[in-house]
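input
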Amino acid sequence: MKTTTNFRNTTIVVFALLLMALAASAFNINDYMASTESPASVSQSAVTVSGVSYTVYSLAGKDSIITKGDAIVKDKSEMSLVLKAKCFDTSYPTSTELNEINSYVLAFNESRQMATSFGGLESFCDSIIGQASGDEGDCVDLTSCQIACNMGSYSCMQYAQGSATFLPELMNYANVKRSIDRSVNDVLAVSAEFKGVSSASQLSFSVSEKVGKIAADVSTLQNESANYAANKLFTRPIFEFCVPVGATLTLNNSVLSSAATKAAVLSVKAGCFDDLSARTDALFNDTFARIDLYTNTKAKGTIQEEFNTLASRYNLLVERADAATAMIEDAQLPQYITDVEALNAKYYQYVHDSQYDQAGLTVGQISSKLDEFESRLDATYVDFGPLIQNKTDALTKLDRADAIIEDADVTMSADLSRLRDRYTAISIALSAKITPEEAPAYAAQYEDIATQASALIEKKRQLEAERVPQLLSDTMRGISMTVLNSVSGPLGVKETDKRAWIANVPIIVIVFVDILILAAFSAAFFFLVLRSTKEFMKPKVMQSWGIIGIVLLLLLAGLSYALYSSLVAETSSASSFAFMKQAKAQTAVSLFVERLSADDATAIDSCSAKVESALQAAGIAVSKTEIIDGVCSDRPLADCLSDTQVPMVRLKFSNANSTAFYTFYRTEAIASGDAQYFDECTISQLIE
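output
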């Protein structure tokens, strides 16, 4: 039950954190887009509702998400208000557009009063047919139109009496004027109504209906304009009663065409208000679909990150468990490993199926199981921790001692062999598994082995320090370097060959010293012979000189051997102690990692990291350089080595495994070998 609660809590925490991040993080529309959608299709509009700022994001022309600050709007009624405000901002008729239509309509209306010698054409006509006052002279039928005509002019009365079609034309003319006046007034009134609304919140009518009314009125004006111009009062050869001589009726129909075009544009834009409800529903659904997309995408990343953290923790716990179960009998520890592996498999399956909620649950289960696993290990390590640590320390010390003690060191080699056998015997005993009560005794034995191995290492260090006195060592090194530098030039020894040529230095020095001593003895001998030949030729004197010569030769041989040994000691490979002494004196080392581009660098890179760590632990600064295919920073390797003024460590691949240290000519450590050799990384154990 406890585990189940932890699972639920973990899932709640994972998704609660995601929702908190969703609310708190800076909004980025790209996070809410599917992989098939292009950022280029995104557009955004700033909208203000009741002083609150919103941003409407549209993808491919479709409203998809509304944000208020960095928060996504999720309330449908709020969405509707924002979309309505957006329509108002983008599709509501503007004063400029309305004024434009008004100006077109008024321009047409003014064309009815085209200028004539008697004033405006329509006013002139109205005056002579009796329709200048009232409602078109109250001309609503033939009788009323006859009365108005009689009152208008004598000519009108005569025309009415002389033609059966004249009065109907008067009545049609009155009706057309009424229709035009009504449509013009309607357009102006609707425009005024539109202008009276300054925000979406004030909108109480259908924008489409109002725009449709303007469009209908403009259409009416176009129709009535045709009817107006076709009336026989203005045409030839029928009556042309209302057209003064020299005048022609010309109504401005072009402005009505412009008004109709503008009204059509407004009608299309007004469609934004018509489908507001449907678009709000679509936006609401799309918003939550995109939130789900975002949550799932982020959940996948968050859960995977948590899983990766747990995986690292699990690997460390398994290492601890393996170390413990190698020595103790505990069925519970392997069972924890089995349980976690099963949960790992479930997690991967859920992720594969995109069931991130279940994946989150499984991560919680893994976390809880690892908590139990770690608690069990901690309890185990109370008894076995010191044993495991002491065993590790003992093995490390034995490996280090094995690396620095040579077969020629017979006594120390024997002591080391006994310690190794003892370590092996204890390890064999542990392979049969022990009880917690036995652990302290085994831990003490490993500790004793580590202590004795450390003593052997220190003894080896002291022997190395005492082998050649420092003053003699410095003298021999100085003599050797002088000889090497003196002969390398005349003999044409290359910089890269000096290390190999060093083997000749002791012989050259010995030959030179022996020749000097023999020459001095010979000169003294012949000087005495020439000075007192008689005395010198006496048997006793000759015997004395013979003895002196033999003694001198013996001394010369002994001195030569001692000198040769000292020189060889300085010019041949040195111990790791001598190398580290030089490195610590300069507090800096150059580390060269040499390989071919085709080599697998895993082992040598791992070893270089261990060497670097060991040098730094000894207080030595490390400068690391990778040499690939013999190229060092775009230069040959030999140039880099020649320019290096501090001790160096070189790691390089080779078929032959070896580690050597040098303090003459160049202070350097060279480790050569294959991948397995660098996996062991013996050189890192020789540095301290």
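quick obs: The first strand starts at residue 42 and ends at 49.
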